[in-house]
């Protein structure tokens, strides 16, 4: 076959229609077309067209992944799920993930560390809630546990719990009697538990928080 025409697609920017022997045979992105070096008048075989179609699918998978990463850092599981939603083939998915990992654009270990640091910087959060959130991003359990051990220590957890507790207590009226004080104690403990702090940490900081009221 001979390529007889290459035209720009009307509804999709950055794509071309390829015609061979007067018939439409394939749609390609500008990137794939440039990589292939096709020009009007070139001879092309069916095998070459099939190869270009596979290349286009690989490039499509990469574009989907890069668009997803551009909005925020992602985990391997998140990218794999996104590519499956886009109906990319398994071989393309694994190849794209491998390429992104090799270039450093996809790194679960860096994601976990950055997630914990950002979470602690923006809002006091306990290790149990952090662990839950990291697992929801699809990170390996052993990686999550190792990251939390490296990023947190007992003093850090107690300082975070104190900060969270003080912010919560500041919004509550000062207890007027022992009954109110007991109720406030329960409310503070429940709030800190929701923020992911262990009961050991909560028990350690409650006396200081209630002394301040």
Question: In words, what does this structure look like?
Answer:
By secondary structure, the protein is mostly helical. It folds into 4 domains: 44 residues; 49 residues; 46 residues, Arc Repressor Mutant, subunit A (Orthogonal Bundle), CATH 1.10.10; 57 residues. It contains 10 helices and 3 strands; from the N terminus they run βββαααααααααα. It has a 3-stranded antiparallel β-sheet with strand order 1-2-3. Helix 3 packs antiparallel against helix 4, helix 5 packs across helix 7 and helix 8 crosses helix 10. The N and C termini lie far apart (85 Å).
- General shape: rod-shaped
How many E-type strands?
3
What spatial order of strands do you see in the largest sheet? 1-2-3
Helix residue percentage:
55-70%
Please tally the helical runs, counting DSSP H or I stretches of 4 or more residues: 10
Termini separation: 85 Å
Structural domain count: 4
Order of helices and strands: EEEHHHHHHHHHH
Instruction: Indicate the mean pLDDT.
Output: 89
Draw up the topology in text.
Elements (H helix, E strand, L loop, with lengths): L2 E6 L6 E6 L2 E7 H7 L9 H26 L4 H10 L4 H13 L5 H15 L4 H10 L4 H11 L2 H16 L8 H17 L4 H13 L2
Antiparallel strand pairs: 1-2, 2-3
Helix pairs in contact: 2-4, 3-4, 5-7, 6-7, 8-9, 8-10, 9-10
Keywords:
Arc Repressor Mutant, subunit A; 4 domains; mainly alpha; three-stranded antiparallel beta sheet; 213 residues; 65% helix
Tell me briefly what this model is.
The chain is mostly helical and 213 residues long.
